[in-house]
Amino acid sequence: MVVCVCVCVCVCSQGGLNKDMIVELANGSLAVVVEVADDVVKLDANNMMAGKTLVFELEVLGIAKPPAEDAEGVVAAAAAQNGAAQ
Question: Is the pTM of this model over 0.90?
Answer without folding.
Answer: no
